[in-house]
Amino acid sequence: MTGSGSGSGSGAGSAASAVFCGYCGKAVGEGDHAACSSRLGVIDPPRFCSQCARRMVVQVTPAGWTATCSRHGSTASA
Amino acid sequence: MTAAPEQVDVLNTAREQVLERGVGLSEEQVLQVLRLPDSRIPELLELAHEVRMRWCGPEVEVEGIVSLKTGGCPEDCHFCSQSGQFPSPVRSAWLDIPGLVKAARQTAATGATEFCIVAAVRGPDKRLMSQVRDGIKAIREDGNEIQIACSLGMLSQEQVDELVDMGVHRYNHNLETARSHFPSVVTTHSWEERWETLRMVREAGMEVCCGGIIGMGETLEQRAEFAVQLAALEPDEVPLNFLIPNPGTPYENYPVVEGTEALRTVGAFRLALPRTILRFAGGRELTFGDLGAKQGMLGGINAIIVGNYLTNLGRPAQDDLDMLGELSMPIKELSKTL
Ligand code: SF4
Ligand SMILES: [Zn+2]
Ligand SMILES: [Zn+2]
Question: One Pfam family from the UniProt entry (chain A) (predicted)?
Fold first, then answer.
């Protein structure tokens, strides 16, 4: 199983075209991201942009999170 | 035939000492509890629950927390993904005032009585203090009566006084771990410096919230040491966190604390701190899962952080509120705390 580029409930610009793991920032096609997947969505918001692997600016609030890549814009929890 | 000398059982002793008289366990006694076999955990939790009901009552205090300033902290607490000294993926960010007001509103909507504003700093500077002042004012102007707590690191006397002036009700500053273990967890400041902030906070009349993190390589002896050191501080609240091994931190490969061990710790801390608000905080999702959270609530815990944590996600607040409903545990109301 490979990790998706973002946590559960992520909004625009994610999943289908994910090239990089949102938890470890490495290529989705390389290595095993099972542990990354289990952390994402359970206790971690995405930290790396799924399209360019830049570290994102993440704000966690009591009810959600937003993650912003300087190149690819913001993603938010549902 | 002479009878074997009667073995003094720590739970029997605790029943008389803690439950009946309200006197917390000694370090040696806490250690005995931490060494109880798994088979005695249910008995321990039952007693811890009775102690909590007797000395704290049935209500649960619900709190939400938000990070006003995330990441880039100059300190080197080895568990922390917000230290600027480690290659953690957490980037620095500031929450704006509208965001802070929204977070307070979301927290109040859960029925929480306490909203804690947290910043990843060694201690606050002028900019942070004025952000906090503006933030609290905006939360009040929004019509939100929730009590405000802060966690802004080490304070000067002047800053303590300023926070009192802003109407901050409780200050959180964790001692993190046993005094003897602290130097291997943090090297950029001392346990004593933390203690000094707590002393000023207490003397200024704010409530003291002080806890720590279980699972940072401390021995059972040190865990017992920590429990009685906290008891000596007589805090109003003790948040109990379980280590989340965060990527990039020196503790990233530490194991997650096992559920049974965590439950023993919860029970032991309740018996060491019979009257204190004992709050379930970070790491409970990894350590316990859903079932364990319930066991903890029935094992001495009487407060909970709902929703997300500062940089990590928690269970949806509604799941925890539903759990409290199932357990018939009433949420402490604001009017009763004011
Ligand atoms: S002082 Fe607080 S924010 Fe800074 S590294 Fe230590 S725990 Fe993290
Ligand atoms: Zn990964
Ligand atoms: Zn990007």
Answer: BsaP
